């Protein structure tokens, strides 16, 4: 059976639990014929345990996206395993507790800086770390939570996602000449570890219960995973700097 990622080699960050959006991207990518390599934070053992639940084995490489040594050695380690890459998934987000949950006006810059470093600047770091492996071009895909709006509880993750969205556009601008596309999926709320770390996440997510034109299941990351795979495939060949909403339509409902 042929798949839309047949013959493609894809690096996927952010597999922590089965509830991780990245786990579902990896699962669908393998089902669609890709060879997948995973990166892990904070410990490879956690990701290795979850990776056993994927349809096929996947090698795991440790990567703290704020650690320059990890970034510098990444291309060499991936080259040993796969030779080259056709796609990269950035599924990484983090903000310290005092940057979330209603503390917006009092959050110290150190916490904002951490949120920006891990959640936004890291898209550039990861793209540049993997660029030497994508000399034939490729697709970079990240995950955002619609940064056009001020959400309850989301606080400094909002500006961090706005920075991520802008970073994606600038990467698309600067990497287009190398045949590299950079796009984001703007996903609706999913009950992942990242979501559980946001105090009041359920209040934020409740909007989906009342406004989503299409049914939305917060326990199902597969729609986001499938859309990531679509962007990794050859079926969006002239799309870059784009944000595709996978949110059951909530982004376009006024009231
Ligand atoms: N869950 C949601 O409601 C939702 C909605 C829209 C977008 N997103 C985004 O999707 C992405 C994946 O989140 P998720 O919901 O699957 O949660 P998750 O907790 O499963 O994934 C977050 C990942 O970030 C990784 N990470 C954190 N700090 C890191 C670092 N320094 N270096 C490398 N990796 C690091 C964690 O290891 C984890 O795998 C994030 O960008 C998140 O903001 C999530």
From TrEMBL:
Q: What is its EC number?
A: 1.3.1.9
For this protein, the record's Pfam families field holds:
adh_short_C2 (PF13561)
Q: Which terms does the record give in the GO molecular function aspect?
A: enoyl-[acyl-carrier-protein] reductase (NADH) activity
Q: What class of enzyme is it?
A: oxidoreductase
Entry keywords, A to Z: Fatty acid biosynthesis, Fatty acid metabolism, Lipid biosynthesis, Lipid metabolism, NAD, Oxidoreductase
- SUPFAM superfamilies, sorted: NAD(P)-binding Rossmann-fold domains
What InterPro entries has UniProt attached to this entry? Answer: Enoyl-ACP_Rdtase_NADH, NAD(P)-bd_dom_sf, SDR_fam
Quote the pathway field. Answer: Lipid metabolism
Catalyzed reactions: a 2,3-saturated acyl-[ACP] + NAD(+) = a (2E)-enoyl-[ACP] + NADH + H(+)
Output the CDD domains linked to this UniProt entry.
ENR_SDR
Q: What family is this protein classified in?
A: Belongs to the short-chain dehydrogenases/reductases (SDR) family. FabI subfamily.
Q: What is this protein called?
A: Enoyl-[acyl-carrier-protein] reductase [NADH]
Q: Provide the species name.
A: Streptomyces sindenensis
